[in-house]
Design brief:
The protein has four helices and no strands. By secondary structure, it is mainly alpha-helical.
């Protein structure tokens, strides 16, 4: 479900939204949607609620990922694009490991 939502968001929604709103304004909204979906997931009381919140999270990431790429392309000199994209992808990869560890530590504290 999440992959389909992210695919549709990146391929269809982002194309339309990015034409109406500047990336600098859209990116914080996308991050807020992502955070909302992620923050509410632990409180899901059923599998359908969890899937719905996962879809909200995926919608936010589906907006933020291409927006970040667009922002990098517009703000960074072309000869530095590779390094900038690499840094962003590295940060994302590290966050996939560090964030769950920090979450586990926070919820394990008694």
């Amino acid at each position: 479900v999440e992959s389909v939502v992210s695919f549709v968001t990146q391929g269809w929604v982002f194309a339309r939204v990015s034409q109406r709103f500047p990336i600098e304004k859209m990116l914080p909204v996308a991050f807020a949607i992502t955070g909302l979906g992620l923050a509410l997931m632990p409180f899901a009381r059923s599998l359908p609620e969890l899937f719905l919140l996962g879809a909200v999270f995926s919608f936010g990431t589906g907006l933020s990922s291409p927006a970040m790429n667009d922002l990098i392309a517009s703000k960074i000199a072309p000869e530095h694009h590779g390094a900038a994209y690499g840094a962003v992808q590295s940060a994302k990869s590290i966050s996939f490991v560090v964030a769950p560890m920090l979450g586990g530590i926070l919820f394990d504290v008694k």
